[in-house]
Amino acid sequence: MTEVTLIGYGSGNVASVRFALERLGARVRITADPADLEEAERVILPGVGAAGYAMQRLNALGLVEPLRRFKRPLLGVCLGQQLLFETSAEDGGVDLLGLIPGRVEAIAPAPSRPSPHMGWSRLNIRRPDPLLEGIKDGDWAYFVHGFVCTDGPATIAAADYGIAVPAMVNSANRWGCQFHPERSAKAGARILKNFLELPA
């Protein structure tokens, strides 16, 4: 049985992610203890809400440096993906984990593009990746977010929302899903399954 460590730092959708992982047969450990990260096989960093508050919590718990040093598979979900980047325009400017180059900016609203981006959007695969095994171009994922990451070399799948939304990113051992895989039906379950199967 694969074990996955879920960071419970007071700014995440921990329960729904945990249930989705347990449905896939994983053993889930929820922790906010930096020492647990040292021995973790793989880590998921969930997140909902504001980047500033999330980083305050990670700093207060002593989790920032252990996350930066972590060398095994790491997945950021929703706000957790955004936290992998360098800075965010949210809350007047926030320094993030700095694991992937780029900045997080607010989605500029437009008549055809309300902000936040809420609901189902199709995934457009940019390049092959182990997390995308079994995912087809055009599969649907469920999004809820008002900020968007830099669309750059790390983007492995995007969604069209009048702008290109980096829906999934990867850099070295770090992955991100801007959408909620735990709420994205078969495609989301397959992505989580793929993460659990990554070599640790």
Strand order of the largest sheet: 2-1-3-4-14-13-12-9
How many separate domains make up the residues? 1
Cα separation of the termini: 13 Å
Annotation, overall tally of beta strands: 14
CATH level 1 class label: Alpha Beta
Task: Throw out a few tags for this protein.
Rossmann fold, 4-stranded mixed β-sheet, 6 helices, 8-stranded mixed β-sheet, 200 residues, single chain, alpha/beta, 14 strands, globular
Structure description:
GO terms for molecular function: glutaminase activity; imidazoleglycerol-phosphate synthase activity; lyase activity. The chain is built from six helices and 14 strands. It is of the alpha/beta class. It has a single domain (about 5-195), classed as 3-Layer(aba) Sandwich (Rossmann fold), CATH 3.40.50.880. A hairpin with a 2-residue loop joins strand 13 (about 165-170) and strand 14.
Summarize the SSE layout with pairings.
Blueprint: E1 3-7, H1 14-23, E2 27-31, H2 34-39, E3 43-45, H3 51-60, H4 64-69, E4 74-77, H5 79-83, E5 87-88, E6 94-95, E7 103-106, E8 117-122, E9 124-125, E10 140-145, E11 147-149, E12 155-160, E13 164-171, E14 174-177, H6 185-196
Parallel strand pairs: 1-2, 1-3, 3-4, 4-14, 5-7
Antiparallel strand pairs: 5-6, 7-11, 8-10, 9-12, 12-13, 13-14
